[in-house]
Amino acid sequence: MNDRVKALVLSINDYRENDLILQTISEDKSFLSLIAKGAKKLSGKQHFSCLCVYEFIIDYKDNKNIYTIHNSKLISSFYDDKDLKMLSLKNVLIELTLKSKELYETEMYRNIITCLSGLDNGNMYLLSSLYLSYLLKLYGINPNVDGCVVCGNSKVVSISKRLGGFLCADHLGEEEPMEVERLKKFRLINKADFDKLPLIKDVEFDLQDFDLLMEFFKENSDINIRSQKLYKELFD
Ligand SMILES: [Zn+2]
């Protein structure tokens, strides 16, 4: 009875006549669907927003994943509609998280929070790339960045999404050669994790670096991220 659960709201949808249903990722209890009774009415006592962390009071049971919210308290907000570019990028991260529900671990919550709370205009692609590289590892589809995927040669010139990693000049096939700097950053981000963030925080990542990881993720996970398409249309 009356359990306190800290969770980040990922999406909000209508539910029955007057209620809303919140899809959340919690700090230590997986993804939870939470019903906010009466929240659809303007006069409703409870107001919720995506990209906000709340402490929810629910009656938690191990085998359930849908609960009614008894009470809630806003802990922190990462929602800011004044910066549309940032908000759209946050939506891409949220969609990635929602689609990774089956692989929940407490680290996923920790990493998405670290990412959202640290994002600024200087590091937005570094942090979002780091989150994506974390997901690649979680899915077990992280690229081979130790050498050419075909022969192991450490002198690499490109990346194959299909073969899953670096390529040397001999095995380039139909791929285009890439800049050394981009290959270095691809290796760096796939070797890094959130604990090593202080060591790489000054490396400049751009949209192309993020896109490269995103294309790799989509090809190898077979998951389509709709918000990424929108992001590219708006900001590329
Ligand atoms: Zn090779």
Concise account of the structure shown:
With 236 residues, the protein is α+β, with helices and mostly antiparallel strands. It has helices at 84-98, 106-118, 124-139, 180-191, 197-200, 207-221, 226-235; strands spanning 3-15, 19-26, 31-36, 52-58, 66-68, 71-77, 156-160, 165-168.
Indicate the CATH class of the largest domain: Mainly Alpha
Unreliable runs: none
CATH topology of the largest domain: de novo design (two linked rop proteins)
Helix fraction?
25-40%
Query: Count of helices?
Result: 7
How many beta-strand elements? 8
Can you list the ligands bound to this structure? zinc ion
Mean pLDDT: 95
Major β-sheet annotation: 6 strands, mixed
Instruction: Quickly give the CATH architecture of the largest domain.
Output: Up-down Bundle
Rg, alpha carbons? 20 Å
* Widest sheet: strand ordering: 5-3-2-1-4-6
Taken in chain order, the helices and strands follow as EEEEEEHHHEEHHHH
CATH superfamily of the largest domain: Recombination protein O, C-terminal domain
Strand content: 15-25%
The helix/strand class is alpha+beta
Which word captures the global form?
elongated
Overall tally of domains: 2
Instruction: Give the CA-CA distance, first to last residue.
Output: 49 Å
